[in-house]
């Protein structure tokens, strides 16, 4: 952990910077993959599963038998935990539904907007070191609440051609329409352009490695929407004298274990607090299974001593963390001052893992400072809000001149005429 | 107008396609512009104003004197129209504010989300043939309601170094922090990266030519958010026997006059309706000032006869128009079936121009089929929705095991430990 005591405000912006990674070199290779998928469809996905995942698949689509069998591959305890998380996520996201409100902006001019589900969405769940069924919940539950008709899931198969039972079980709970054994840029291409087995979708969600990240960027240029620009996961913890150093260390480590490029920032109210947390970090790190990842991430992490909570808040807003943990006594006083953050955890008993899994909030959040302008995934991410307007004859007589005057001033006579021609008819009657 | 009578469903997808334009060739030149702006700041903007706008500016920033003088350059009638539109847009967008709702997902586990303004936003208003003060209203009013602190406006100067008084007047109403005389890709670069005169912003809004479009795509890859991917404006009108052919023709022309690449689609319930509208188009076109634009757009437009409203609706959903006008008798019956559209205009007295200027709905809408996954600009576009969670000791005891079980199943021991270490302490007490 890089330690900085009371840094001068002039260097804060530098401290708040993330390491930049230029991924443009990956683009040509990924565009080749796109071409292959567009030209050869399923066959391309089968070839690339062989090449990258080391498996000769007999079918790209998980069969109903495989899905049914997964049920017995998940312990009763895990099923109950998944159902509890499902219920909490559902409860929280259901509250995000916007009721239709009609607004009569002038007499006879009525406007409203209505949330309409995105019909077809694609969910990408990476393979690798951890089966992220929690991410599938975080994406699938709001998709279901929204009413998306088609949910396509792509996830890379293991070397024996299977998908982890917890992923299949969760997908089955969510009523995923189609589960495809495909990973990487080829999976993103398949969902964007479609193949024989993969229906093309309108929006693609989910985390992934740098190939997936770049592939999502590229399909978004081609008109397929994506959830969020991606970057390594982050936490910023503010800790004062009331914080329990062991809890703080555990929270920092839960971020650090994601991978060596995880961003971990501690703002401590004093050198003593910083030292206590460091001591705990060392002790807890030793017994972690993923200690290599965590140790690397900690090497790049920041421990900054800042005198007051006001200063901490200012630094945090500048940094715009994905996760913000307020392990301080007076967190309520800080709430109104938080301008940039993805999700915020209040007090000493709200660890980030609660939001990662089960409290109900979404864990797909803006990283890399994107919290300055982006929200995390929510019910909103799975709907379009379509506006409607109904103008009566009288309404058009009320608003007509305003429109005519503005259209004329913009030099758009046909816009004006669409009103004038109607007003003329009304005056004639 | 290309006429198609009862097309077979197999060719619908082809009919619904927009012309594709490959803008990638523009990227290298635009990246050069970015580099110039990043290296030379204001000086680059001044050079490029000379080169592209043909003006040697003494200052990039509109002075308070210029802004004050604009007041007298706008007629009383236009001021009143702008104020009326402002009021309607404000009324409609204020209703989009989301109240904070606390949800206790389990006893002791409380979650909520809060809309927080994006602190700094940039608004781009193109120059060219029409001074689009209406677009400035559509972006500036929700930005103000959201509470964005810094509103930066970039718009290209005329050859005499001025900005149109209606733009300055509207900007002044909106309390725009800084008005910059800059257009094109260089304006987008200035707002993304900052110069001596232009503060860098977190999100950039507004329409523009293909250079602006590509520049927005490129800065969004670099982490600055943008409003929407852009494309030529569009309208789809459904007309049955109850429609007034003159009104329908006027609506089609108001779209066509935007430019030669405007997309205009008419779905008519019979060949007779189509023929009547065509006749009206011809008559009205003759007297339009922008008839060259409109005629070109009409050449590329589609007039499709489809027997029933159900079929029309299905085609419209496939096309996903930016603007959808229902000039049919039973439009109320269609509302629930609309799945893809930007903004919808109901009945015979709700022309698109109403929404373009003054009804209250936003006119920055998804084009090019993006309405399948994107919403138009709204109050939401100017805020981030930050989630919060507060878990009590008892709450953590309720939810703890769920988190531990899930974290362990995902192989993330440190995530589990952040809960266990707290539960252990609670059990010890």
Automatic annotation (TrEMBL), chains A, B:
CDD domains assigned: Histidinol_dh (cd06572)
PROSITE patterns noted in UniProt: HISOL_DEHYDROGENASE (PS00611)
Record field: catalytic activity: L-histidinol + 2 NAD(+) + H2O = L-histidine + 2 NADH + 3 H(+)
Binding site for substrate: 233, 255, 258, 323, 356, 410, 415
Annotated pathway: Amino-acid biosynthesis; L-histidine biosynthesis; L-histidine from 5-phospho-alpha-D-ribose 1-diphosphate: step 9/9
Active site (catalytic residues): 322-323
InterPro entries found in the cross-reference section: Ald_DH/histidinol_DH (IPR016161), Histidinol_DH_CS (IPR001692), Histidinol_DH_monofunct (IPR022695), Hstdl_DH (IPR012131)
Binding site for Zn(2+): 255, 258, 356, 415
GO molecular function (one): histidinol dehydrogenase activity
Top EC class of this enzyme: oxidoreductase
An example Gene Ontology biological process: L-histidine biosynthetic process
EC number: 1.1.1.23
Cofactor binding note of this UniProt entry: Binds 1 zinc ion per subunit.
Protein's UniProt keywords contain Calcium: no
Pfam families membership: Histidinol_dh (PF00815)
UniProt cofactor(s): Zn(2+)
UniProtKB keywords: Amino-acid biosynthesis, Histidine biosynthesis, Metal-binding, NAD, Oxidoreductase, Zinc
Record: residues binding NAD(+): 124, 186, 209
Function noted in UniProt: Catalyzes the sequential NAD-dependent oxidations of L-histidinol to L-histidinaldehyde and then to L-histidine.
Family classification: Belongs to the histidinol dehydrogenase family.
Listed PANTHER family: HISTIDINE BIOSYNTHESIS TRIFUNCTIONAL PROTEIN, HISTIDINOL DEHYDROGENASE HDH
Name by which UniProt lists this protein: Histidinol dehydrogenase
Record organism: Pontibacter akesuensis
Lineage of producing organism: Bacteria, Pseudomonadati, Bacteroidota, Cytophagia, Cytophagales
Gene coding for it: hisD
């Amino acid at each position: 952990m890089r330690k900085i005591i009371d840094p001068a405000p002039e260097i804060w912006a530098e401290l708040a910077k993330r390491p930049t990674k230029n991924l443009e070199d990956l683009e040509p290779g990924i565009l080749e993959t796109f071409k292959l998928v567009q030209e050869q469809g399923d066959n391309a996905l089968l070839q690339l599963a062989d090449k990258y995942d080391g498996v000769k698949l007999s079918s790209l689509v998980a069969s109903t038998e495989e899905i049914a069998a997964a049920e017995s591959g998940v312990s009763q305890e895990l099923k109950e935990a998944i159902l509890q998380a499902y219920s909490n996520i559902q409860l929280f996201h259901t509250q995000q539904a916007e009721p239709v409100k009609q607004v009569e902006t002038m007499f006879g001019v009525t406007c409203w907007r209505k949330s309409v589900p995105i019909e077809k969405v694609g969910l990408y769940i990476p393979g690798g070191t951890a089966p992220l069924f929690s991410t599938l919940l975080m994406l699938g539950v709001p998709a279901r609440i929204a009413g998306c008709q088609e949910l396509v899931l792509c996830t890379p198969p293991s070397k024996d051609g299977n998908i982890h039972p917890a992923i299949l079980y969760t997908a089955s709970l969510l009523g995923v329409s189609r589960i495809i054994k495909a990973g990487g840029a080829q999976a993103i291409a398949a969902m964007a352009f479609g193949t024989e087995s993969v229906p093309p979708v309108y929006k693609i969600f989910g985390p992934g490695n740098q190939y997936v990240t770049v592939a999502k960027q590229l399909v978004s240029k081609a008109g397929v929407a994506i959830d969020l620009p991606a970057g390594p996961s982050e936490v910023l913890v503010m800790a004062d004298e009331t914080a329990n150093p062991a809890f703080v260390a555990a929270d920092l480590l839960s971020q650090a274990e994601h991978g060596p490029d995880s961003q971990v920032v501690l703002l401590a109210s004093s050198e003593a607090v910083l030292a206590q947390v460091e001591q705990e970090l060392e002790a807890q790190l030793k017994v972690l299974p993923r200690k290599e990842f965590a140790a690397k991430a900690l090497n790049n992490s920041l421990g900054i001593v800042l005198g007051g909570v006001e200063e901490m808040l200012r630094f945090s807003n500048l940094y715009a963390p994905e996760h913000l943990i307020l392990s301080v006594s007076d967190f309520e006083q800080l709430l109104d001052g938080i301008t940039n953050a993805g999700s915020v955890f209040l007090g000493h008993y709200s660890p980030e893992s609660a939001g990662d899994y089960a409290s109900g909030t979404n864990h797909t959040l803006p990283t890399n400072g994107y919290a300055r302008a982006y929200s995390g995934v929510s019910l909103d991410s799975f709907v379009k809000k379509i506006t409607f307007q109904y103008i009566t004859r009288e309404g058009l007589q009320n608003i007509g001149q305003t429109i005519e005057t503005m259209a004329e001033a913009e030099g758009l006579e046909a816009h004006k005429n669409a009103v004038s021609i109607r007003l003329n008819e009304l005056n004639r009657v």
